[in-house]
Amino acid sequence: MSDAKIVNLVDESNKRSSQLPLVSGTLGPDCIDIATLYKDTGHFTYDPGYGSTASTKSAITYIDGDAGILLYRGYPIEQLAEKSNFLETSYLLLNGELPNKQQFSSFEHDITHHTMMHESLKDFFKGFHHDAHPMAILAASVASLSAFYHDDLNVDDPADRKLAAVRLIAKMPTIAAACFRYSVGWPLRYPRNNLEYVERFLHMMFEVPSEPLELNPVAAKALDLLFILHADHEQNASTSTVRLVGSTGANPYASIAAGITALWGPAHGGANEAVLKQLNEIGSPDNVETAVKRAKDKNDSFRLMGFGHRVYKNFDPRAKIIREMCHKVLNELGVNDPLLDVALKLEEAALKDDYFVERKLYPNVDFYSGLIYKALGIPTEMFTVMFAIARTSGWIAHWIEQHETPGSRIGRPRQIYIGADTRDYPSGKR
Ligand code: ACO
């Protein structure tokens, strides 16, 4: 990394200038460091949606959106999808290196022994109406973890930060499964330590008192892979939210709860739920043409859910892996889902349509994930919760990195004020 080059910016209007250093990372374009711009010239920068703005330096994940490349700690997502598992990937995101055997078994042991929810937390669920959205329950439950673990947590202590990471990664599936079971009126399940991470989650989701559950290894493998693909994605909206909240010194549970609420929106993680609802609404391959027409109509707010991405302008490498896996999983589970035909037709129609081609709108990670979740028996409202379980390891890795970075400051963007000019309170108003 070198910060040697300089951009000279001269502001003719007020004859002030600024020498702005170019900051280089390991990969990716150089960035103009504008930290001194206001001091030097009296100007802010304006970048709604942050399309040209790097908010931080980070060593966790790298994306080249034009080339369709995604790396976790330098490892291509395709290789991790093929060779790793979710817990190992989480260790990698948190620690920067793949674990050796001993490190992995110690990490797995720690996670396995922090999966229980406090019994009092279970009582919180009873306060929710049975048809509350599970993302609302998840966000509230994770925020409430602060009430259980806040007092003894020092965000400046590396050991405390690590413990918080373990607690969050461990408890998220337990809380998520409880959200589901509460919504269907089933008794909550305790985590079983003899099972691996994803199997344990599936057991907590689907085991009923009346009969033993036979866990399907195809389902566990598919879910593990989806968790790897969703584990991190650099400075997306929810991760940036976690970092912004974290920058205030807020505890990790409050920070991750904020990330969960940001993820919920249909433009972000909520897209997986929205995709399935939309495929259901389209209903048949015969209606695809009308849907594509509506998506192109600027007078219609209808968008093709699961298409487009702020960063990927070629293809989403995760979508490539999931597409292939979707066919395989549906075949292996013997599921014949007519929505797959609708999805395939929609993908085909959009990929050859000028509107989508010109705007580089390709299927994203969420276009196919919902079909797999559905095949695994996971209800639509739980799709974004699944995403949240996986993304927790990325969120907490970023939260830790932020606290390990010397000189971190509170996040505080500027604005262009467009309201009323200064004016006097009218006399005789009261
Ligand atoms: N359907 C139809 N048109 C679209 C779509 C879509 N899904 N996505 C973008 N466009 C159009 C926009 O109308 C705009 O057209 P214009 O240039 O004629 O005005 C152009 O493509 C650029 O779109 P923006 O909204 O400016 O792109 P942005 O980068 O801000 O948004 C986003 C990216 C939010 C993902 C968007 O493509 C979208 O809403 N997609 C559908 C929701 C979705 O699938 N979200 C999941 C993203 S992946 C994730 O978060 C896990």
Describe the model.
- By secondary structure, the protein is mainly alpha-helical.
- It has 18 helices and six strands.
- The strands form two sheets. The protein has a three-stranded antiparallel beta sheet with strand order 1-2-3. A three-stranded antiparallel beta sheet has the order 4-5-6.
- A hairpin with a 4-residue loop joins strand 4 (61-64) and strand 5.
- Helix 9 packs antiparallel against helix 17 (365-375) and helix 14 runs parallel beside helix 17.
- The longest helix has 27 residues, at 158-184.
- It is globular, with a radius of gyration of 23 Å.
- The N and C termini lie far apart (63 Å).
- 39% of the residues are buried.
- Residues 49, 267-269, 271, 295, 303-310, 359, 361, 364-366 line the site of acetyl coenzyme *A (ACO).
